[in-house]
Request: fold
Amino acid sequence: MRISRVVPAVAIAILLFALAGCASRGIDLTRSADQMDFGVRMARSNLWREALFRFERAVEIEPANAMAQNNLAVAYEGIGEFDKARDAYAEALRLDRSNQYIQKNYSRFVEFYSRNRRREQLLRENDEKSAATAPAEEEEERSEPVELSRPEQPPGPGELPVSDVPPDPTPPVPASPPVTDPPPPGGEL
Reply:
């Protein structure tokens, strides 16, 4: 019985500590920049679902923010939602076509899926060749078909413009929002 009382108390203490930490840093989650900053920290910790949530909030707060759209696209890539990533990149490029950071991330995205498309095509060709050359009796022995996990289809040619920026081999990282407000007195440096 004593343990059942301690666990909720510890959970509440942790929650209060976390909230106090946010308050002491001057984080205002009604601001797009603060949502983006929090999302970037989550993405760097590989907490892509939380990062996605924060970037979605940033876009809700400030829909015309191209960097929020870019970060949303990167988070969608991080969780494997490639169609949504393509759409978010399209919106980011629509909002700020001259942003080289967005162009570079989109270029990486397109290159990755171009390679993935070629790999998928080779896999299909190999599957077809092995099916055509395999003896018929081997098919009868298999009771259930084997399903391979494959990535979703890449974007089709011409669906989004590819920038002139050459692909960069490093993985995309969400952009930190620009710091415009000085930290509050006694805040973290």
